[in-house]
């Protein structure tokens, strides 16, 4: 099969998926009817008139806002975003260390969104890698670790890759480390976060100070689950007695997942279900899991604005210490006793990330904090809830239009 044929087939498959999961208006209307019907049944069975469903992944929040799915929900059903943005929860201190190294001549490779991530403390007058590069710091944006590997081999100078992400990116990092493809002059600053601990923490926080209405279901991240498998979410269903549905990212995926959660609630069930069957299995990618385990070990880790979560981060094993930026550049690990929830004054990203507040509840939203000039971490990445709402109007405009069209 030549490359032209492969490209043509890929385009054809993409079009089929879009037709089935994005532009299928007839199915969307049926799912909305099911959601309204199941919501009435669920609230009657549970004896409540309102409830919340948490969409954990930033891409799910993008779909919900971009396609106006909140406007199709029955009154009393609220969709809230969870901590599904790895850039948003990266501690300021580690970005500060990267700025310092870049100013000292170390080439720092970063993703585009982390490039604009502001720190709490200034480093020689700078608050972001973007600002530092404008004054001569050696910072280069890349699409991933392979780009950094190729560039580091060419120039040969000391360099660092900011390894930010969730379980989705961890196999790629692990494979590069295990295969010996990372050159000696390139060090990995592993800031990978593990999502199940954050989901548990979010639900615990919301139950400590119960919101009204309660979170009664979770839309689990699809891309992460291709690695972890749906089994990773079984403790959520078992310990919190709420349904969990692993969802794809098209509007039909999300609507079907909401319908399944409400159907389970109406039956008083709490199970893990896979809606995203075209990509996710129960066991996940066992080869990827093995690579991650061989290259990394889990540590208690700081999540910006949230807290120190048990066994929620990945660090390189001792066998790969020669590639470990923490050890080779003397970057100190954060500790619970000296770390503070590092969000800027007035910023409510922590509450937004935990589903306790909406972006529009923050006094900085679209005032001091905008996509062009982000103030808080939730406005930086395309997966950040504030950035999604700012770009696609998540503050209620779609609801108003839906009411005018008689859809609510």
Low-confidence stretches: none
What spatial form do the alpha-carbon principal axes imply?
globular
Radius of gyration computed on alpha carbons: 22 Å
Distance between the ends: 50 Å
Spatially, the strands of the biggest sheet line up as: 2-1-7-8-9
Structural class: alpha/beta
Strand content: 5-15%
**What is the average of the pLDDT values?**
92
Residues in helices, as a percent range = 40-55%
Largest sheet: 5 strands, parallel
The tally of strands reads 11
Which terms would index this structure?
408 residues; 4-stranded parallel β-sheet; alpha/beta
Describe the structure.
With 408 residues, the chain is α/β, with parallel strands linked by helices. It contains 16 helices and eleven strands. A five-stranded parallel beta sheet has the order 2-1-7-8-9. It has a four-stranded parallel beta sheet with strand order 4-3-5-6. Strands 10-11 form a two-stranded antiparallel ribbon. Helix 2 (25-46) runs parallel beside helix 11 and helix 7 packs across helix 12.
SSE layout and pairing:
Layout lengths: L2 H19 L3 H22 L4 E5 L2 H9 L10 E5 L10 H12 L3 E4 L18 H6 L4 E3 L3 H11 L3 E7 L4 H9 L7 E7 L2 H14 L6 E6 L1 H7 L5 H7 L3 E3 L4 H16 L5 E3 L11 H10 E8 L3 E10 L8 H4 L20 H5 L31 H8 L4 H8 L4
Parallel strand pairs: 1-2, 1-7, 3-4, 3-5, 5-6, 7-8, 8-9
Antiparallel strand pairs: 10-11
